[in-house]
Amino acid sequence: MARGKKTDNETLYKVMASYFITNNFSETARRLNMPVETVEDLVKRHIEDEEFTKLHQLTKEEFISKANRIIDKAMNRIEKELDHTDKIPLNQLATTLGILTDKKNIAEATGQATETPNVQINIIDNSNLEKTLYEEE
């Protein structure tokens, strides 16, 4: 997009809809063949607009609905696979089901269909712990 060029409503809607699906500026820019900076600027300026708040909610609900349908199908397939182990390996099916279930639960809890949880790991140096515990005084 040319610098300073006004974005039409159709393009803005496409940017916002894609961002709500991807939750990623770079991926949205790639999908729409736009500069990342433009996508980021548009999203940040319009994320709180009422129409896009509604679109975000709708996108989340559609994802949850689709995830529920797929989970139901996968659960039925897992039950069948338990009787017929010569098809798709059960561990692969179960892994897929677990990932989808986790994503669905995150979407229901946080409102982000593709958000991944943040995990903080604290590493503590206990190299002298044993020496300290058993040191004779």
Describe the structure.
- The chain folds into 2 domains: 40 residues; 65 residues.
- About 4% of the residues have low confidence.
- By secondary structure, it is mostly helical.
- The chain has 6 helices and no strands.
- Globally, the shape reads elongated
The ordered H/E elements are: HHHHHH
Extended strand count: 0
- Total helix count? 6
Mean pLDDT: 76
* Oligomerization category of the chains in this entry: single chain
Task: For the record, give the distance between the C-alpha atoms at the N and C termini, rounded to a whole number.
Answer: 74 Å
Low-confidence stretches: 113-117
Q: Indicate the structural class.
A: mainly alpha
Please state roughly what percent of the residues sit in beta strands, choosing from under 5%, 5-15%, 15-25%, 25-35%, 35-45% or over 45%: under 5%
What proportion of the residues is helical, as a percent range?
55-70%
- Computed over alpha carbons, the radius of gyration is 23 Å
- Domain tally: 2
Q: Give a short account of the largest sheet.
A: none
